[in-house]
C-alpha cells in the first residue's frame, strides 16, 4: 500500500488571498505593521501561532497567543461571507477522484490548518469519503516536525518508505525528509520550485495529473 499525504493550502486549495486578508486585518486591529503578500505566503503551512510570531517578529508568548485567537475570530467571520471561497486548483478534483479509486493507494491530509479548517475544506469539496487520515495544527507540532507524517503512517499501518508527501512549501519537503517519506513538490503554490528542490523534493509536479506517473514508478 502507498500512503499519499497532501498538504492543503497552496497544494489542494488556493487560499493565499483569504489568509493574507485575515492576517492583515488581525494586524491592523492590533495596531501592527501590515504584512506584505509575499510575507504572508512565506509562512503559509506553519502552525498559526508560529506563523504569526515569524511574520510579526514578536517572540512566542502571550501576545502571539492573543493575535492567534484574533486571527481565528477574523477567519470565522470571513468564512460566513457569501462570497467566501477556497477554490481547488485546476485538476485537483480529478486527481483526488482518480487516486481514491486505486486499491493500492490511501489518501491523507497533513496541514497547518486547524481541525475546524480541515472540516470546512473537506465538506466544501466533498473530500470526506476519499481521505482516510488527517493531521493538523490541533494534533501535532508545526511542520517541518515529522509527527504529522509519522502519525498518519502509524494510524494506517503504512510503511514510511511507501509514503509520499505532496506540498508547495519547503516546510512540507523538510517534514517528509525528516520522517523518511518521499517529498514531491508542486509548482502552483507559495514557495518557488527551486526552493522545494533544495529542501529535498524528489520531483516537482507541473500539473496535478503528473502525480500519477510519479506514484507508478
Number of contiguous helices: 10
**How many strand segments?**
6
| C-alpha end-to-end distance | 14 Å
* Protein structure class: alpha/beta
Secondary-structure element sequence? EHHHHHEHEHEHEHEH
Please bin the fraction of helical residues.
Answer: 40-55%
Our estimate of the beta-strand percent is 5-15%
> How would a textbook summarize the main sheet?
6 strands, parallel
Strand order of the largest sheet: 3-2-1-4-5-6
Ranges where pLDDT stays below 50 over 5 or more residues in a row are none
> In angstroms, what is the radius of gyration?
17 Å
Characterise this structure.
It comes from Pseudochrobactrum kiredjianiae. Pfam families: HAD_2. GO terms for molecular function: hydrolase activity. This protein is of the alpha/beta class and 217 residues long. The chain has helices at residues 16-29, 37-43, 48-56, 62-79, 92-100, 115-124, 147-156, 170-179, 193-198, 210-216, and strands at 2-6, 105-110, 131-135, 163-167, 182-186, 203-205. It has ten helices and six strands, in the order E-H-H-H-H-H-E-H-E-H-E-H-E-H-E-H. It is globular and about 50 Å long. The model has no long low-confidence stretch (mean pLDDT 96).
Topology summary:
Elements: E1 2-6, H1 16-29, H2 37-43, H3 48-56, H4 62-79, H5 92-100, E2 105-110, H6 115-124, E3 131-135, H7 147-156, E4 163-167, H8 170-179, E5 182-186, H9 193-198, E6 203-205, H10 210-216
Parallel strand pairs: 1-2, 1-4, 2-3, 4-5, 5-6
Summarize the structure.
By secondary structure, the chain is of the alpha/beta class.
Amino acid at each position: 500500500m502507498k500512503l499519499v499525504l497532501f498538504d492543503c493550502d497552496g497544494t489542494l486549495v488556493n487560499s493565499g488571498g483569504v489568509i493574507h486578508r485575515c492576517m492583515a486585518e488581525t494586524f491592523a486591529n492590533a495596531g501592527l505593521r501590515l504584512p506584505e503578500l509575499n510575507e504572508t505566503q512565506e509562512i503559509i503551512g506553519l502552525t498559526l501561532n508560529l506563523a504569526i510570531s515569524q511574520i510579526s517578529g514578536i517572540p512566542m508568548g502571550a501576545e502571539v497567543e492573543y493575535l492567534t485567537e484574533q486571527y481565528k475570530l477574523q477567519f470565522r467571520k470571513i468564512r460566513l461571507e457569501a462570497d467566501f471561497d477556497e477554490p481547488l486548483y485546476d485538476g485537483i478534483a480529478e486527481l483526488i477522484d482518480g487516486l481514491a479509486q486505486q486499491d493500492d493507494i490511501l489518501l491523507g491530509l497533513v496541514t497547518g490548518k486547524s481541525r475546524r479548517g480541515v472540516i470546512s475544506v473537506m465538506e466544501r469539496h466533498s473530500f470526506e469519503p476519499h481521505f482516510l487520515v488527517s493531521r493538523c495544527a490541533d494534533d501535532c507540532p508545526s511542520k517541518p516536525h515529522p509527527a504529522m507524517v509519522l502519525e498518519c503512517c502509524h494510524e494506517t499501518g503504512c510503511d514510511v518508505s511507501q509514503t509520499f508527501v505532496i506540498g508547495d512549501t519547503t516546510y512540507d519537503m523538510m517534514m517528509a525528509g525528516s520522517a523518511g517519506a518521499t517529498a514531491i513538490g508542486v509548482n502552483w503554490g507559495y514557495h518557488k520550485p527551486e526552493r522545494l528542490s533544495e529542501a529535498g523534493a524528489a520531483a516537482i509536479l507541473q500539473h496535478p495529473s503528473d502525480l500519477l506517473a510519479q506514484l507508478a514508478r
